[in-house]
Amino acid sequence: MSYKEKEYKKRYDQDHKEQIKEYNKQYYQEHKEQIKSRRRLGYEDKEKRKESHRRWLDKENEVAKKYIRKSKTRWTAEEDKAIIDLREVGITCTKIAIALGRSRKAVMCRIAKMHKEQKAEAKDDLM
Questions:
Q1: Does the structural domain 69-127 have CATH classification 3.30.70?
Q2: Alpha-carbon separation of residue 101 from 9, 16, 115 (angstroms)
């Protein structure tokens, strides 16, 4: 390699390093701005989001508790049919729980159990 080629390569490398530094500065500046905007919106703190979700669930449960009847009551065929009909319409579990006088968790568990039973029946039909 000649002296001129070495000098050219050296200058090119220096220019390239400066370009990379400039790009990194610009990138990190944009990144900092994004983080600041997220903080303004409240995305930086997972605990805050978890706490607000907990408060929302507590509020939903308080509403549902007004309509809860005694636990350990059996599910009837009428209630199962009502759950299926209301779910087809697109009503949430909380509203179904209020309508049936059950807890939200009980309705969710019952829906899961009915899905499991349907899968088992479908599997038996295929065999």
A1: no
A2: 80, 70, 21
Using the structure block, give the residue that is written with the tokens 């065999």: 127
DSSP letter assigned to residue 76: P
Q: Quick one: DSSP state of residue 44?
A: S
Q: Which tens digits make up the pLDDT trace of 3-22?
A: 767 776 777 777 777 777 77
Amino acid in position 67: Y
Q: Round to whole Å and give the CA distance between 120 and 108.
A: 19
**Cα–Cα dist 30/11, whole Å:** 29
* Helix axis angle, 77-89 to 93-100, nearest 10°: 150
Give pTM, 2 decimals.
0.46
Q: How buried is residue 62: exposed, middle or buried, by Cβ count under 10 Å (0-12/13-18/19+)?
A: exposed
Domain range list for the chain: 69-127
